Amino acid sequence: MDNIKELMDFLDRSxxxxxxxxxxxxxxxxxxxxxxxxxxxxTVEAGGxxxxxxxxxxxxxxxxxxxxxxxxxxxxxxxDSPSFKLKESGEKMSGGYVQLATEKYGGMLMAPxxxxxxxxxxxxxxxxxxxxxxxxxxxxxxxxxxxxxxxHLNREANNGVKxxxxxxxxxxxxxxxxxxxxxxxxxxxxxxxxxxxxxxDLYVYPRxxxxxxxxxxxxxxxxxxxxxxxxxxxxKSFIEAGKTETSGSAIxxxxxxxxxxxxSDTKQGASSNFMRDTLRRAVLALGMSEEDYLRMVASxxxxxxxxxxxxxxxxxxxxxGDNCPRxxxxxxxxxxxxxxxxxxxxxAAAFKLLCEEAQVPVQVYANRSDLPGxxxxxxxxxxxxxxxxxxxxxxxxxMHSPFETAGAKDVDYLVKAMTLxxxxxxxxxxxxxxxx
Length: 436
Prior knowledge:
By secondary structure, the protein is α/β, with parallel strands linked by helices. The protein has nine helices and 22 strands. It has helices spanning 2-12, 17-30, 182-190, 225-242, 274-285, 290-299, 345-358, 377-382, 410-423; strands at residues 34-36, 49-54, 58-63, 71-78, 83-94, 97-105, 118-128, 131-138, 172-175, 197-206, 211-213, 219-222, 250-257, 301-305, 308-309, 331-334, 362-365, 388-393, 395-397, 404-407, 426-429, 432-435. The mean pLDDT is 95.
């Protein structure tokens, strides 16, 4: 149960993508990984351990093999979750109350946000002499609520409601007495005068803590399971694999990108140059050539890790009965004919071979054929760094709700399989594939 307890602690301490990446980099630093900066020259050595961040919300870590590298073993997930972001002019008045002006971030289930304690967190950018610095903040108390309209005032509430983000989901901050205090409160959280705060990225988050549920505590309940479960799982695996020196020749890479929930088309998203340039610079810093880099990409493999929809106990008809996973039954390989997922027959077979050796059960997922599903970062990242790729995840319920449910056992399967992936990588060859 060590993995699930560590995951729960990570979930509770990561209310925003900025906090998640800070916690992931703390894991890396504790394990001896050296921080690099994109704007500075890199010195990279055989056997070295490194990581680089972008925007404070994305991170890529890599471990160089002792031998001359010949391929890449990449795993990627994302740090963001659907939420409400505070607008720049944060306060607004309505009915004699102070509210916080927000807008939706990502495709969320809106109804579960009502009538639960909420707070704010994120980062602020403040003046420091002639320059600027950033600092993470977290109010870390029950600060806000989005109140429902009482059934007496809307008799149709249980017959379906269309929620409008500019009206229905504006959080309540306080009475008139707190008008004008938001800026001062944010300054206090940051420990700097409010007048020196020149920028901010603040989000509303649910205060609910992670918990184990079910008759045998077989379910994990928490905010942000999608996709912090996979983010923590691949980083944990990457660090565990890095503790053992192998004779392999793959550069092991663990990447966590921001902004997957809004399409990844940002400087810190999977559609950016972040992955491509980091891998290229790592190879060139060893004194290898551009040709070496291109050959390594061509033979490499990427695992895109983002959770999958478990069959719903109340609505099994929404799933393809023969292609739907269940919680606590193993890692899910995700398929889609329209290439929303990158899995093909070759990459699926390679990953199954790996899981077979790791003694980890595998499931499959495909949408019901008449229901379009979502997409994830694998296909997007592959347009910049094209390598054999498989989309995987862990089965969960209530995806994009502020409180989601997953299987408590499945994180163990993820860590076990991905630890082997980073130590014994499938390598694409012209005639097939081998485990390096």
